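Example 3.2
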Amino acid sequence: MKTIRVASLPLQAVIHDISKAFNTAPEIDFGEHLIRLPENIGIGSIRGINFDGGLGILQYDCTFLEDMEIQFIVDKVHPLKFLYVMNGKLNHRFENEHESHIVHQFQNAIVASSDNHGHILNFKKNVKTCVFSLEINRESFKNKTSFNKDGMNPKLKKLFKDAEAESSFYYEGDYSLIMNDIFKKIEDFEGSDFLHMIFMESIAYQTLVHQISQFLDDQREEGNRNVLRRSEMEKILHASNYINDNLSTYKSVPSLTKITGLNPTKLQEGFKHLYGTTVNRYVFEARLNHAKELLLNTDDSISEIVYKVGLSSKSYFSRIFKEEYGVQPSSFRNSKK
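Structure, written as tokens:
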């Protein structure tokens, strides 16, 4: 394992310490500091940028040639970190503790060390690991923001007011679908360097807003959580496949809740994200599309088709088919033949 030690703050100094350990020079452009990994270290990059008010972003997009341990150890209060793993997995532990936390793909963690203890990050060799880290300077952020509101969640209030790092904090969960969209925006952004700097500052605040919302959602009972996680999208795909495979017997959203374990709010959010529509509209279109296939490719009667697509009557089927396609089902079949 290769071990490097970072004994500096803020992020600009962090990047320079890492680049020195890798025997390379960082690139600096509009406040962003970038390291391109040398060939003897691996493939990819590490980049960091600070903003006024105590926020900063570190991004790792790395495939290391050997196991890599980065030790963030400096005799100061360390930033509050919001870690998101888009690819691979990340091993984290506090400098003063032996217990490690593994943050897997599509998971996130909020980590705050106590006193002046640092953070140890481990990356596995030959594994593409993409990590987004929102870094918050506790003193600067505390001075900028008031945490005296009575309605604020006690855990968050204590976390953000702890500028002296009196206690450690660790939270882990699956990050939300909204956060997945934010990472896609970062990947797709094509503006100038100046616009990129402004864009990334907006990303920092969006991340903070959505992470707090997700944390609050996680405090609810599991069945009452409404924020859809990226890891739950497979369940949405399972739900849509179930609908298409069982059109003749599908009844309603509660049946999907039983099959997937997702509550109705998450189901609706997932369908809107993947298919741009509600569950009921998805079912409606799936039935009409399947009816079109049967009209074109079989000799089934209209009554048989109505049964196979799970509708209640010929008259209802004929009415909605004409409203959607402008012709009666029988006329559609004859014209296509």
